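User: Here's a chain of 362 residues. Predict its fold as tokens.
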Amino acid sequence: MSKYGFVGLGLIGGSLARALKNHDESNVIVAYNRSPEPLEQAVSDGVVDIALHEIGEGLSDCDVIFLCLPVVTNAQALSTLSPYVGDKTIVTDVSSVKCSIMKAADEAGLREHFVGGHPMAGSERTGYIASSKDLYRNAYYIITPFEEGDPKAEVLKKLSEDIGAIPIVMDAEKHDRIVAGVSHIPHLAAAALVELVKNNDYSDGLMKVVAAGGFKDITRVASSSPAMWKEICESNDVNISAFLGDLIDRLSEIRKNVSEGNGEYIADLFDDAGTYRNSFNTLSAGPIKDSHKFSVDISDEPGAIASVATILAVSGINIKNIGIQHNREYIGGDMTVGFWDGESRAKAAEILKNKGYILHGV
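Assistant: Prediction complete.
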């Protein structure tokens, strides 16, 4: 049994608390949240054992305290938390920018207690209501200690493994550059693509009407928290700006070749990008959470959806969600099935193919 403290109980904090409680029901979860409603719900759910109304003595005997607020707010909370940190307490965070929070921890006198953390999982949905004990399954959990070999990092590694995540230890500077490229820039690009359609749409909104399938999927993360992304961009501005410059240069080159009708350039672009993308490790979740889904062609008749669900249930596969798409990107049916992880998705695809179903997006 361990005692874990949480400052902030949104999607990330709530999911961590759920995962730790699911791993060991004897774990004691103590939590503070500025808004009382999520805290009350977490107590009702049996996730939180002790609800706190302030950052104070109630956190002093915790084994690990998680700061689960936006990155700038986390840094500010460190000075408030500092007087209440026990001698053996580890303080960590979940921020997607590490250099700024670690500097703040040092300035708050918590260097001996602090180790940076970033569970690289999330959702376009926000708040405790969207939290899940499975959010971190197969997700990378980045750990950034002040010094190599810090025993606090080993504690966090074991904890991340307990909740099904994959720990990676690295320095804060490397982390911030990596996430700028693989997470921060894609989120900004998704937002820019949505704005592109919005600003070029017709008065009857026809572009929005047909913007489904692939476009809707690749821009899914544009629905993420505006307040969170404001703070991320303020905290990792140098790395983000550098990658934006590279992206702009690349898009300018693509534009030039498209304007000149250089088809070979475009073919080589997709060939090179496709080869590299296909080399990605698909067994682990990255910073942009994979929705682990595919589409199934089904006949328009009673029981068609239930048949698919029954086949998967009998095989012991847990379906996360099922959706019906009213517009069809592919020729044939429009049922989308989502799963909790890539392993379940792959197994389900094999089973349904063997049953004669035609799948898309696998």
